[in-house]
Fold:
Amino acid sequence: MLGQKEEYTEEWLEQANAAALADYQIAVDNAEQKYADILGIEAEGYSQRSEFYQDFVDRNKELKGQIEEEEQRHNNRIKELNDEILAIEKDESLSYDQMTYFRSLKQDEIEQATEDHNARLAEIERSYLRVLMKPH
Structure:
């Protein structure tokens, strides 16, 4: 018997302690579960943010690659047309009027190639922006 009342026995104390310990353990388990849930939510957020940034980096690399390819294609075409102009200018079999006419045609082709090039660059950028603006 503990204290003055008969109901407070050693057995009662052991049961009260066991019940308190069980309540305490339940509270600790619940707190640990909430903490684990919070960490899971944070980890998911970081993961989603990381995926978004990786997609952004990948899209930028892709865009840069497309632009570089287009620039190279355009530069090659302009060089080709300029070489053709030089060949026309060196062709001694052509009269001055013929040379001027053929050179003018090639210069028109250069202008058209440049307009096409600018249109391709604009389309690359538009398609990039469409993909970038898509909801994730």
